[in-house]
Design goal:
The complex is a heterodimer of chains A (113) and B (129). By secondary structure, chain A is mostly helical. Helix content of chain A is 81%, strand content 0%. By secondary structure, chain B is mostly helical. Chain B has a single domain, classed as Fumarate reductase/succinate dehydrogenase, transmembrane subunit (3 helical TM bundles of succinate and fumarate reductases), CATH 1.20.1300.10. Helices cover 71% and strands 3% of the residues of chain B. Chain B has 4 helices and 2 strands; from the N terminus they run αααββα. The chains are: A mainly alpha (113), B mainly alpha (129).
Chain lengths: 113, 129
């Protein structure tokens, strides 16, 4: 049987796709409200800092960042292929590495809160 | 594998050949907006870790017309991603009870209901209303 790494990249993609389908529209609505000057109470510095200070929230937020970025990265890779770009390995390396790097950065920032 | 494999020329012109292809690409392009918003979230975490002034400047930065326009478009793409994702759930999670398969509409409908409940819960808990 041929060895495939598909399940490794596809698992987080499916998880991230489900997570972003459930959560992302509501989260975008929160920052959209803030952009319109009606910032939800949670976005006040004291409340946000206390909320993000809880270890469980930190783990959840890091998970949301990773799964969202991974599924976006995977879709971007497939989209590049669909649009006729054939350098799949290079594109895959760039997008997955980008998702991992941004997740690592978010873990670093969360640790400082 | 041959040493000189034949690679068929391909352009992106096919997208416009059928409305279905265009809808597929619209769904796929949602990744750009969901990804961009998540990167903004990472930036927000950085500002939050730097203290109250940095956080206030982040919130003030959200009010630029360009950011508002980005949010409106990103929200539309994110909602489109959710709709297409939940419409696919009966294919991904066919559910059999006894001899009968649960109807497709019940499976995707349950996902849509959970999505609505979760979105309202997030907005309520964040103090949006």
């Amino acid at each position: 049987m041929a060895i495939s790494n598909k399940p490794i990249v596809w698992g987080p993609f499916a998880a991230g796709g489900t997570l972003t389908a459930f959560l992302t529209p509501a989260l975008i609505l929160l920052t959209l409200l803030a952009a319109f000057g009606h910032a939800p109470d949670l976005l006040a510095y004291d409340r946000m800092h206390a909320f993000m200070g809880h270890w469980l929230v930190k783990v959840a937020v890091a998970g949301v960042v990773f799964l969202s970025l991974w599924s976006a990265a995977h879709r971007l890779r497939i989209t590049c292929y669909d649009l006729g770009m054939r350098a799949d390995i290079a594109i895959a390396t760039i997008v997955y590495a980008g998702a991992i790097a941004a997740t690592a950065a978010s873990v670093l920032y969360l640790a400082r809160i | 594998m041959s040493r000189k494999p034949y690679v068929r020329e391909m352009t992106s012109e096919w997208i416009f050949r059928h409305p279905r292809y265009l809808r597929y690409m619209t769904r796929e392009f949602s990744c750009l907006f969901i990804g961009a918003w998540t990167l903004m979230l990472v930036c927000a975490l950085a500002r939050l870790s730097e203290g109250p002034e940095a956080w206030a400047s982040f919130l003030a930065g959200l009010k630029s017309p360009l950011i508002i326009a980005f949010h409106v478009v990103a929200l539309a793409f994110a909602v489109y991603h959710s709709i297409t994702w939940f419409n696919l759930t009966p294919k991904a999670l066919p559910l059999q009870i006894g001899e009968q398969f649960v109807p497709d509409a019940a499976i995707s409908g349950a996902h849509f209901a959970a999505w609505a409940a979760l979105s309202i819960a997030v907005l309520y808990l964040a103090g949006a209303f």
